[in-house]
Amino acid sequence: MRVPLSWLREYVDLAPDATPDDVLAALVSVGFEEEDVFGFDLVGPIVVGQVLEFVEEPQSNGKTIRWCQVDVGPDQGGVRGIVCGAGNFFAGDKVVVTLPGAVLPGPFPIAARKTYGHVSDGMIASAKELGLGDEHNGILRLVELGLDAPVGADAIALLGLDDVAVDVNVTPDRGYALSIRGIAREYSHATGAAFRDPGLREWGELQQPAAGFDVAVRDDAPIRGRVGASEFVVRIVRGVDPTKPTPAWMVARLTLAGIRSLGILIDITNYVMIELGQPIHGYDLDRLRGGITVRRATPGEKLETLDGKVRTLDGEDLLITDESGPIGLAGVMGGGTTEMTDATRNVLIEAAVFDTVSIARTARRHKLPSEASRRFERGVDPLIPFVAARRVADLMVEYAGGSLDTAVGGALFADVDLKGIELPKGFVSRLIGVDYTSDEITGALEAIGADVEEPTAEGWFVFPPSWRPDLTDKWTLAEEVARLHGLDRVPSVLPTPPSGRGLTAAQRGRRRVANALAAAGYVETPSFPFTTEEQNHLHGSVSGEPVPSVKLANPLDGQAPFLRRSLVPGLLQVAHRNVSRGFTDLALFESGTVFLPAPGVVYGTDFVPPLAVRPDAATLAQLDASIPPQHRHVAILLTGSRVAKQPGTAAAPYGVSDALDAVRTIAAAAGTTIEVAQSSRAALHPGRTATLSVGSTPVGYVGELLPAVAEAADLPGRVVVAELDLDLVLTLSGVGVAAASLSGFPAATQDVSLVVPAETPAAAVRAALVDGAGALLESLRLVDDYRGQGLPEGAKSLTFALRFRADDRTLTAAEATDAKLAGVAAAQERLGATLRE
User: Fold this and answer.
1) Tens digit of pLDDT for each residue in 752-773?
2) Are 72 and 93 in contact (CB under 8 A)?
3) DSSP string, 627-648
4) Based on C-alpha coordinates, what's the Rg of the chain?
5) CB atoms within 10 A of CB 427
6) Does domain 421-489 have CATH number 3.30.559.30?
7) C-alpha dihedral over 281, 285, 288, 291, to 10 degrees?
8) What CA–CA distance (Å, rounded) separates 121 from 76?
9) In whole angstroms, how far apart are CA 1 and each of 36, 37, 169, 364?
């Protein structure tokens, strides 16, 4: 919300020397966030000049310039020669002259310069060049603005261009602050300065004829039981002249507030909207057909809005209609058929209160945010429409030459039910942690406009003001007390945690895994949990066949509306982004949630439990049932080189073995052992893919992406991935990592080579050796997989390095050999393995 300081001064006492920073500091103290400061960025001398005479001189390029003699006053050098290309002024006109040394927005410095055969000693300015508009409509003539001033007078002050605006961020719950009225009140709260409410006018002055113009609300499909329009006030002004100039001070204020000047009639409606926070719409009365009806749209009905677009309407859209059909999208934008133009002579003024939810949905549905919808969707003061409509009428009478019709008008007005809130004594101090006195509490609430009944033994009964729909309970009242008395009074006290609490075993396990991977050199890259259905099918299933996926009703990205079943698509996006920026050697990991819906189950619910009520077990179960199963996975992606090329050493690219090292790191951190068995998967290379298991339970996979899959992700070269169900791994590992005692006796090492059929998994051979060798076997590692000459066809030789150790003695070679042979015997019995000769 941009607030011109000259406008703010009309309704609250600002110190004469108050700077924009002072105003922002005061507003920050009552909970607003400062954004910026805006001005016209003009540096003088910029003065009033009078065109004495000019000579039109056609040029070879087809353009005609005017060589003007302009009087800028004795203090500025008297008469100056100025070249001007515009043709909309006359001899005797008073204009705005920017003299050498001036700087216009841009910045655009002004200097005497030779052009078209003359030395132009300054420039006659347009409204656009002064920052008063976006369109160049010729030279700014003071007579068109209804202004007059002596030659040589300061034009910056005359046009209000010495004003400045502060910009504050208004949160959605404080829509009343989207107005000069609201900001002035908040500045008064912050500083104690006197506040003059522009919304206070005598009812007798505002009252209008109850009949004469038909207004009706017919809402047959209210949203959540709320009728679309609760108030609709109509005033009529006749005999306006839409060609009259908008006063310069009004143009300057609207410009600083971020509103373009569009002519006196529209400018007045925008001015009152900014001033009071009540959106106003003006209709050309002579283009209306019959009375006005507020109703919902018929699905498929069409309306051409003021921006020239024809919009297909939804059944929830709230419309303003006459006998010809839709003439406006209520609370969002008017229609083109009844807009005010230069031919308008009679104006119908509309000030209404529309349902916040209905307006918000319509604005989003049509992607049509507006200053009006911004205010309506936050809630406007239901007691202000009569004031706003009369304020617009008064300004049109004063500046557009019209007259208020006191015989014809119309209004629908619902009783405003301001519900009281019970505020127990001591509640505010207990909640905020500050000992507020009773006078401080009641004083703060009365300052914001609330009515506070006499206290009882239990507390107070508070009626919030009509412009504060956000004050709904005792907690919001307590927040207001804390805000107005200063948030700096709230002590910084850390809560004392109860003893015996801490991270759960699962949380500790997840941290160990993440820390271990980071320590091993992998970079964690969290990503959004959104993907496409095709990626879920490819990476979220073994076969690549369609699998159930959860589709979001309101996705952040329409191209990725599904919740992920795998972490790999997110890692591929991260890798692509890095490779495109020149980072080609990547070791990435992510630990995050995947969503695995059960086939045939529909998730999501329209059930909303009641607020301020502790949900029971049945309610919690209903909410839990609406959420798909969520598992925490951990995934690895490797691409590029593990060892970069350097003198004497070739580059060593990442391979599946590196991904298996990462899997072993995860297993060690989780306190378990993960077995590897060759398998297949849709997105992975045949023969370079394996299933990962803890015992007999599969927990994930590892492998190299198919070249086509890597190419589709715009990744060059080899890409290796691994993904594990981390929750399942930690569950199967039991209590977690347990430190083993170290033996002080030396180890005995032996090797064994076993010949088995080629299709036999090495993990099965390893398991047989471990089971047969018994407790003396400390570790076992596969060191070679040989297939070729000297072996039977269809066979392979697996060589294992075994290490034996006893806790109480030094093993002999015979004891180690017996243990090894016991393992070989187990492998022979289970798998038909034979010792290689």
Assistant:
1) 999 999 888 888 898 899 999 9
2) no
3) S--EEEEEEEEEESEEE--BTT
4) 39
5) 17
6) no
7) 80
8) 11
9) 10, 11, 6, 20
DSSP bridge partners of 97: 47, 124
What fold is seen in the domain 748-835?
Answer: Alpha-Beta Plaits (3.30.70)
**Cβ–Cβ < 8 Å for 402, 396:** yes
pLDDT of res. 208: 67
* Residue among 235, 239, 266 at smallest CA distance from 349: 235
Write the DSSP assignment of 248-290 as a string of letters. HHHHHHHHHTT-----HHHHHHHHHHHHHS--EEEEEGGG--S
pLDDT at 185: 94
CATH class of 46-158: mainly beta
**So what's the pLDDT on residue 735?**
52
Residue burial 335-347, b: 16+ Cβ < 10 Å; e: rest = bbbbbbeeebebb
676 and 690 in contact (C-beta within 8 Å)?
A: yes
pTM of the model: 0.66
Helix (H, G, I), strand (E, B) or coil at 405: coil
The pLDDT value recorded for residue 714 is 92
CATH of 203-413, one of 3.50.40.10, 3.20.20.70, 3.40.50.10810, 3.40.50.150: 3.50.40.10
At residue 502, the pLDDT reads: 78
Give the model's pLDDT for residue 738. Answer: 55
Query: Can you give the residue ranges of every domain in the chain?
Result: 2-40+164-191, 46-158, 203-413, 421-489, 505-733, 748-835
Equal fold, 2-40+164-191 vs 421-489: yes
Angle between helices 762-773 and 813-831 (to 10 degrees): 130
Peptide bond into 464 cis (omega under 30): no
Residue 561: predicted pLDDT: 93
Report residues of the chain scoring pLDDT below 70: 135-136, 204-205, 207-211, 221, 223-225, 415, 501, 735-741
SS3 state at 709: helix
